[in-house]
Amino acid sequence: MSTPNPTLNVLFLCTHNSARSILAEAALNHLGKVKGVQRFRGFSAGSSPRENQQPNPLALRALQDAGISTEGLSSKSWDVFALPDAPHMDLVITVCDNAAGEVCPYWPGQPATAHWGYADPSNAPGSEADKLAAFKQTLLAIHRRLELLINLPLASVDRLLLQQQARDLAQKD
Prior knowledge:
The protein has about 170 residues and is of the alpha/beta class. The protein contains five helices and six strands, in the order βαβββαβαβαα.
């Protein structure tokens, strides 16, 4: 992983790419700039986004309430990242159990992989305020793991070690 480019690209996958993966992409882009250098860049996609899928409005609101930019967020298929002109991914993290169990496309460069499972906040019962609280809780849980990820000593980490460290973070709450 020792390349002149210090930026690590991380792709977050979920089924529809409307909630958890969107939260993770935005949060990593917010946290990934360290001392003026973009050390991490987040991306997100879904295994089967619905036609005309958009990010969940409650996900966008949770991000905005946390002071995290929602600019440029969109729902898209993971096929976009298997194309030859797609950005190279260093790490691919599934954030829902459905996507973790699916056969992923071939990722150029064979990035490290990990699974960080989160309950779908879109399925939270109750009022809109209750649902928003579920999105905020999910964002907080993702944020905690991302803080650990961005503080790993990545300059000297190879793909397999990165994969193991990312997988170990799934055990931390």
